[in-house]
Design goal:
Length: 136
């Protein structure tokens, strides 16, 4: 069973962003599935490496979209992104130094909670802003 289930409630209405969010859901679910299958060490390293690269790409695209549309909450949003990248890099560093010090289930839960909270609370702010923005 998947840890995260994508639904329309997570949809921002921005197809490219929603597709990227679905890839992030998939990465968290693959980590969770790897844990359930007894492949925690292999899967957590793979997931953390993917997330370090992919979140940077996703956040850059998301922030560019917000800047392009003059979203007033851009700075706060960027700060949230920086915090996640730092946290994932810390997990990654700890894992590469000593895999036994990183608890995969805690990483999966943290990522799942962060992702759903961030989409529902931060990303929906700019989605609402864009829907209500006058078209010129």
């Amino acid at each position: 069973m998947a840890l995260l289930q994508w639904s329309d409630r997570y949809a921002t209405g921005i197809p490219a962003i929603d597709e990227e969010h679905q890839h992030l859901f998939q990465a968290v679910n693959e980590l969770h599935a790897g844990l359930a299958a007894g492949h925690a060490k292999e899967q957590i390293g793979k997931t953390l490496d993917f997330l370090v690269d992919y979140t940077l790409q996703h956040f850059k695209a998301e922030e560019a979209y917000m800047a392009q549309n003059a979203f007033v909450g851009l700075k706060a949003h960027q700060f949230e992104h920086i915090l996640l990248v730092e946290e994932v890099r810390l997990f990654q560093k700890q894992f590469h130094q000593d895999p036994t010090k990183v608890r995969p289930i805690e990483v999966a839960r943290f990522l799942g909670e962060w992702l759903t909270h961030h989409i529902m609370n931060m990303d929906m702010q700019y989605a609402t802003f864009l829907r209500n923005k006058p078209r010129g």
